[in-house]
Structures are given as structure tokens and as C-alpha cells.
UniProtKB/TrEMBL annotation:
Residues 194-349 form the DUF58 domain. Pfam families: DUF58. This is DUF58 domain-containing protein. It comes from the Bacteria.
Amino acid sequence: MHLRLNGLVFAVLTVLVAILGAWSGEPDLQRLWLLPLALLLLGLSYERFTVNRAKAGLTIDAPEQGLLGRAMPLQLLFHHALGRSVDIQVAPAAPEAIEIDTAIRLVSVPPGEAAALEVHATPRRLGQHEWPEMQARIAGPLGLAWWSQRLAGRYSCKVMPEMLRDAGGRMSSISGGLRPAHFNLGAGAEILQLREYRAGDPQNAIDWKATARRGRLISRDYTEDQHLDIVIAIDAGRTSALRAGELDRFGHYVNLAARFAEHAVANDDRVGVMLFADQPLATLAPGRGIGAVLRIRHMLAAATPKLAESNPLNAALRIRTLVRHRSLVVILTEVDDATVAGQLASAARLLLPKHLPLIAGISSPEAEAMRDAPAHTWLDPYESLAAQEYSSRLERNVRALRALGAPALVTRPEHMERAVFDAYAEFRKRRRV
């Protein structure tokens, strides 16, 4: 309970009357302070009874699934059982893995209907998250006090990896069944053959005239279509839990992997995923079509970083048994870690020349800003030198990997997706895989 203006007035009045009574020396005046105190206690009792009878409640209206790193709207619906309007102060709350504006809001809830308060929440980690109770204060009808209550919304949200946002590679929502958007089947201009439709064939590979003649789905094969096998290896070790911009590094890796899988499947390539830390944690063999995208997204949605040092060499050994012929291996890991860098070089040697490893890492925006910032205090030059050493180590590691024949890139989190997509397009164009 917290006193409001009317309650404070009664409390101050009680104290003043008690002081005046004590100074007067009159026995009757000395007991006069009991009157405003009794009125205050009586009013508070009535307010408490009314607030209990209000049965204030909260319902959260929001989608059952959220996308990692993308803000989603939440409607907080407040209701009560009284025949008059009720003022409610609420401090919005969310699970630890979801960011939300926690500023206290005041909502006036009319009788017989709900009052809506819209807030935006941004998921920062994957998984299923139960919404906690929210701390609220309900105004008493006499204006004497705010009465504290905890309101349970009974809402659960499953956070999934991101989806493509560009129109060229977008698929419809998962809930409605993924369907490939319009995409290019390859560079070939001639049809090699007609064959029976296979699950996962893109929609515009179907020969509709032949389908109509034969009464069943018939697909076309082109003379120069490329059908690549791709394995995306995601570092889920200890350092992947470090924050990089709006998400931790593992969140950036997962979002990139999910979108890249969707993009590659739209090109009729086969895509698989592997999570690794000190050992391989989970593996999906390369698959084609909608089913492969769904399996990848569901596996990634259940993934979390592990408190173990990453070992890309063990991941490369597992990849060699997973794919038997030449494949594109996209390794999303830390290139700046001195220990991992040596293992990355060994992993690249193990994969080359049979496979083409593309190694992608995230640079630190904070370190880049610190490297170029002017000095204002005695500590700034040392911080700048440390940031310069960090950047130099990144460049050395990237050059060493490229010298082995393994394409490598390190970019800021917001540029990583574009860099990987461009590299993939260049590999297809030059037919390096």
C-alpha cells in the first residue's frame, strides 16, 4: 500500500491535531487526533474491501511465436468486476530473454470492458519463455492509497529464428506452410529431360503441360542447373554467448543460418546444419525443399550456447562423414579467438580441397569505435591500443585462412548476412562448388 494525496492529507492532519492537543494541555483536545486517524483507517478499510472485490485481471494478447531480434507488439488487456472506472498503474515485465519498456504506465479501466495497453517486446534468445507476473497498483475509490497487486497474464511465447525479409527470397509464414517464392533455377537455357516430380522440387520447375497430359506432376531438369550441397556449421561454444550489438553472437549465427537456408533452398540447393562446441552437438544432413527449412528452423529454435570451448576441428571431422562429395561448408564462428584460430586453420586444411569452407565471423563494433576514438583521459590511449591489436589479430587470422585457400570474412553484425549471401552468389556464379 502507498498513500495518495487524500491519505497523506489525513495523515498530516492527524499529526498536527496530536501536536496541538499536546501543547494545549486539555485532556479532551489531547484525544482529538483519534478522530482523523479513525476516519483514515475506516477509509483505508473500505478501499481495501473495494479493491479485493474488483478482482482486477490481466490478459496478454500477442502472437504465440516471436522472431529472434525482431520487435513484436503485445496488447495488455486489463479488466475488473466493479461498476465504476478503476485506475491501474502497471510496470510491464517480460522474461529475462526478452527486452521490454519497463516504464510505469497508468491505465483507466472502464466498467464492463477491457482497457488495452500496447507495448513492444524484442526477443533476444531462442526457446520457450513463460511471461512473469506484472507488478500493479490499483487506486482506491476514495483517493487514499494505491493497493499493490501482482497480475498474471498466463502467456507463453516461443522464439524462432528470423526469416528472410527481402521479396526475392521470401517464403510465406511457417504456420501457413512454407512455399518458395519466385527464384532463378540456374543458368541453363535448355531442358535436359522431364521426370517424375520429387518432394522438394521448386514450383517453377514443374512442367504444367506435361503434368496435364499425364495426370501427375512432372518436373524439368535443366542442362546446367547447379544443385549444391551446403552444410552450415554454427559455433555454440562459450564465446558465442558474448553480446554483439542487439543480440549475442549465437543469436546472429542462428538468424543468419535460418535465413541462408531459406535462401539456398529457393535456389534448389540442399542444406544441412550442424551445431558444435567442444564436440558436435546436433546435426541435420543436407536436404532439399520446404521440409529441410522446417527441420532446420525447429532444430535452431531449441539450441542454446554451451559453457565449453569451441573446437572447429572436431566439427570438420564430423562434416567429412556427413557429406561424401564436394560441398560448400559455411562455418560461423569466432575468428578473433587465438585458440580457435589455430583449430580453424586445421579444420580448413582437413576440409580442403574436397570441400569449399567459407569461414565467417563477427567483429566487435565497440572495439572498432574504441580504436578510432580520440583520447580524452589517460586511459583512452591504452584502450585504443588494445582495440588496434584486436583488429590486427582479426586481419592476420583472416589472411592466414585465405592463404590456405579457405574464403574468410569478418564483418560487423549488421553486415554479416549480406557478406555471406554475396559470397554464396559469387561461388554459384563461378561454379566453385
